[in-house]
Design a protein that fits this description.
Elements (H helix, E strand, L loop, with lengths): L16 H28 L17 H10 L6 H5 L3 E3 L4 E5 L3 H16 L14 E3 L6 H19 L10 E10 L6 E4 L5 E8 L2 E3 L2 E6 L10 E3 L5 E6 L2 E5 L2 E14 L1 H4 L12 E3 L18 E3 L5
Antiparallel strand pairs: 1-2, 2-10, 3-4, 4-12, 5-11, 6-10, 6-12, 7-12, 8-9, 8-11, 13-14
Bound molecules: 2-oxoglutaric acid (AKG) and fe (ii) ion (FE2).
GO molecular function, one term: oxidoreductase activity, acting on paired donors, with incorporation or reduction of molecular oxygen
InterPro entries: Oxoglu/Fe-dep_dioxygenase_dom, Pro_4_hyd_alph
Protein name: 2-oxoglutarate and iron dependent oxygenase domain containing 2
C-alpha cells in the first residue's frame, strides 16, 4: 500500500535524533513519490468529466450560497448563522447543504473513472485504504482552494479560536467504503483545525459517523453521538473532535474530506503531538505549517506529527 504523510497520531515518542532523521527521510521520499504521481497523472490521465475540476457556483447548493451571503453581510453573527445550520449536541458539529445532487453524481463518476484507470494512486491517509488524493488529480488550485475560501466567513464565525478566519491551506481527499474494501474507520482525530466532510453518495446503508470528546478537553466517560450522512450535505467539525465511521451494511459510500489548516494556529503548537513543531520542507501545502518569515505560503510538514 502506498502511504502519504503520517496523518494520525501514534503512541510512540521520539527517543533519538536518528529516529527523527529517519522520519525526515521517509517524509521526503513520500513527497517525492507524490510529486511523481501528480506528474504522470497530469500527463497521461484523460478525465471523463473535465468540468468538475474547476469549482463553479452551479455546483453549490443554493442554500450554501445563501449561508455565505449571510455571513458576509454587515452585522452577521454566530446566533444568526446557527439559524441556517443543523447543530449536533454541544460538540460544535454543524451540517449544511454544500453541493447539488448533479455535481455529486458527476464527481463520483469522475473518481470512479480515475479508480478504474491504470494511473498511479496514492492513498488518502494512513487509515483509509481506498479513495483518492485530490491534489494528485490537480484539484487543489481550481477547486479546493476556492471552496475553502468560500467557507471562510462561515468558519470564522463558528471556530474563531481555531483560526477559522484564516484557514490558509488544506489536505483534501475522497474516502470510499464498500463491502469488499474498507467498511469503517476507527476512532481518530484529524491533522486539521477544522474539517469539512461532505456526503457524495452513492447508495448505502448504515455507516454513520460518530463523535466523542474534543481531544484537548477529554471527559472521564466520553459521550458519543451518531450523525447520519445526507447526500450533498457537509459536516463541519473541529479537527480535534474524536470521531470515526461505523461499518456500512450495503452499497458504497463516498465522502469528500477537506482537512483545513491555519498556519497561525499550528505554527505555535502541532495539533497532533501538542508540541512545538519541528519542520522539514515540503511540496505544495505540506501539512500547513510555515516558517516564521514566510507565512503567506504554508509549505512545511512537521516531523513530530508522529509523536
Ligand atoms: O468516513 C468518513 O466520512 C470520515 C473520514 C474521516 O474522518 C477522515 O478521513 O479523517
Ligand atoms: Fe477524520
Amino acid at each position: 500500500m502506498n502511504r502519504t504523510a503520517q496523518d494520525f497520531p501514534r503512541q510512540s515518542q521520539w527517543s533519538s535524533t536518528s529516529k527523527v532523521e529517519a522520519e525526515v527521510q521517509r517524509r521526503k521520499q513520500l513527497i517525492h513519490q507524490s510529486v511523481e504521481r501528480r506528474a504522470i497523472i497530469s500527463k497521461c490521465y484523460k478525465p471523463k468529466h473535465p468540468e468538475v475540476y474547476t469549482l463553479q457556483d452551479s455546483f453549490l447548493a443554493p442554500e450554501f450560497l445563501e449561508i455565505v451571503r449571510f455571513c458576509t453581510s454587515p452585522g452577521a453573527d454566530l446566533q444568526g448563522l446557527l439559524s441556517y445550520l443543523e447543530s449536533f449536541s454541544d460538540k460544535r458539529i454543524y451540517r449544511l447543504p454544500v453541493f447539488t445532487e448533479e455535481f455529486c453524481q458527476a464527481f463520483v463518476d469522475e473518481l470512479e473513472n480515475f479508480e478504474q484507470s491504470d494511473m498511479p494512486k496514492g492513498r488518502p491517509n494512513t487509515m483509509n485504504n481506498y479513495g483518492v488524493l485530490l491534489n494528485e488529480l490537480g484539484m487543489d488550485e481550481p477547486f479546493l482552494t476556492p471552496l475553502r475560501e468560500r467557507l471562510l466567513p462561515v468558519t470564522a464565525l463558528l471556530y474563531p479560536e481555531l483560526g477559522g478566519a484564516c484557514l490558509d491551506s488544506h489536505k483534501a481527499f475522497v474516502v470510499k467504503y464498500s463491502l469488499h474494501e474498507d467498511l469503517d474507520l476507527s476512532s481518530h482525530y484529524d491533522n486539521a483545525e477544522v474539517t469539512l466532510n461532505v456526503s457524495l453518495g452513492k447508495e448505502f446503508t448504515e455507516g454513520n459517523l460518530y463523535f466523542g470528546d474534543f481531544n484537548q478537553d477529554p471527559s472521564p466517560v466520553p459521550r458519543y453521538i451518531e450523525v447520519e450522512h445526507v447526500g450533498g450535505r457537509g459536516l463541519l467539525h473541529r479537527g480535534g473532535q474524536i470521531h470515526g465511521a461505523l461499518p456500512i451494511a450495503s452499497g458504497q459510500r463516498w465522502n469528500l474530506i477537506v482537512w483545513m489548516r491555519s498556519s497561525a494556529i499550528r505554527n505555535r503548537l502541532c495539533p497532533m503531538c501538542h508540541r512545538k513543531p519541528q519542520l522539514v520542507e515540503a511540496e505544495g501545502f505540506g501539512d500547513g505549517f510555515t516558517e516564521p518569515l514566510q507565512e503567506e505560503e504554508p509549505q512545511t510538514v512537521d516531523v513530530c506529527a508522529l509523536g
